[in-house]
Design brief:
The chain is mostly helical and 347 residues long. Helix content is 67%, strand content 0%. It has 16 helices and no strands. Helix 1 packs antiparallel against helix 2, helix 5 packs antiparallel against helix 6 and helix 13 crosses helix 14. The radius of gyration is 27 Å and the shape is elongated.
């Protein structure tokens, strides 16, 4: 995405300079920039792949840039031929560009169909995260489709690669929409596992912001006992939540398969009814689902440290507190979007 945004920013800045200074006579430069834009096709695909799968970039991925580089080379060479041959080579360039664009659009569509539309989770926080990323991916893919369609419909009908500033406003408008979207919601760039990465951060603030409801209870409090508890913990709510998170991510208490609210209360040295109240009225997840989130986070840390080098997935499930392998497998796939083996491949 950095390459895409950086190139497009430079591209439109160059167009602005050329428009403001027509006497520069740099029509060849404007053509070159427009041709170089073909290299963005694999960038879009690799970005989609990283967002939905979060694979680490490997050198082998550079193979995606071979077709665009070949086309750019072909177009450059065409300028060295006579006028008759130049026309033929440029037609080959145009049709090849359309073919490669359609190919990458298809690849992106298949990727989104497999990893975005079919992605499900029982955890509310993950559901909300999935909706956010899904909307962003579909929005960006739609813009990508419109950009490619606009570019090559023009080329197809013109049968040439003569640059035309009168048509650039359509592309500019679409890119402005993308830039504004990124500025307004930058969290969409982080990918599906943003929750699991953000909980690694140690701050004095609440880490799992989307899990907790701090500005008020989730539902109306009608019971008199609950009202009294609400009054007592009002000034200490954030402190209690922070202590729960400290136990969640900086202790091994959640590895106890029989962990209950009374165990949390015992560690925090406060009455269990206060912990029960916090999870009932200030947590978007049930205590059962919250334990899954914490335990899966614990499992990812062990995987990154090489737990499976000499141990089994079953022993990992048991170590982090799951009562069975099946329960662990479903929870891991639901929260992380991949299996343990697929997760390990990233490291």
């Amino acid at each position: 995405m950095l390459i895409i945004v950086g190139f497009q920013s430079f591209r439109f800045l160059s167009y602005a300079i050329l428009l403001a200074n027509p006497n520069l006579n740099l029509n060849w430069f404007s053509k070159l920039i427009d041709v170089l834009a073909i290299s963005l096709l694999p960038c879009f695909y690799l970005y989609f792949e990283n967002v939905v799968c979060e694979n680490k970039f490997k050198t082998v991925k550079l193979v995606h840039f071979i077709p665009p580089v070949f086309l750019i080379f072909t177009f450059t060479i065409s300028n060295c031929f006579s006028h008759e041959n130049e026309h033929i080579i440029k037609k080959i360039f145009i049709y090849s560009s359309i073919l490669i664009s359609c190919m990458y659009l298809f690849f992106c569509f298949q990727l989104i169909k497999k990893h975005v539309w079919k992605r499900k989770s029982e955890i509310k926080v993950i559901q909300n995260q999935n909706i956010l990323i899904t909307k962003w991916i579909i929005f960006l893919f739609t813009c990508f489709l419109l950009l490619v369609t606009n570019r090559y419909i023009i080329l197809f009908f013109k049968k040439s690669f003569d640059f035309d500033f009168h048509l650039i406003w359509i592309t500019g408008l679409l890119w402005n929409i993308i830039f504004i979207k990124i500025l307004l919601t930058p969290e969409i760039l982080y990918g599906f596992n943003f929750l699991n990465k953000s909980i690694d951060e140690i701050t004095e603030k609440v880490v799992l912001k989307s899990v907790w409801k701090i500005d008020g209870p989730l539902k109306s409090i009608t019971n008199e006992k609950d009202m009294k508890i609400a009054e007592k913990i009002a000034s200490k709510l954030i402190k209690y939540i922070h202590e729960i998170e400290e136990l969640s991510f900086h202790s091994t208490i959640f590895r106890n398969p029989k962990l209950g609210l009374e165990d949390i209360a015992g560690e925090m040295k406060i009455p269990v009814n206060k912990i029960n109240f916090i999870f009932r009225f200030h947590c978007n997840e049930s205590f059962s689902d919250y334990k899954k989130i914490v335990r899966i986070h614990d499992a990812t840390k062990l995987l990154e440290e090489g737990f499976l080098y000499d141990k089994t997935v079953e022993s990992l499930a048991e170590k982090v507190g799951f009562s069975s392998y099946i329960t662990f497998y479903k929870a891991f796939k639901s929260i992380m979007g991949v299996t343990t083996q697929e997760y390990v491949k990233r490291f």
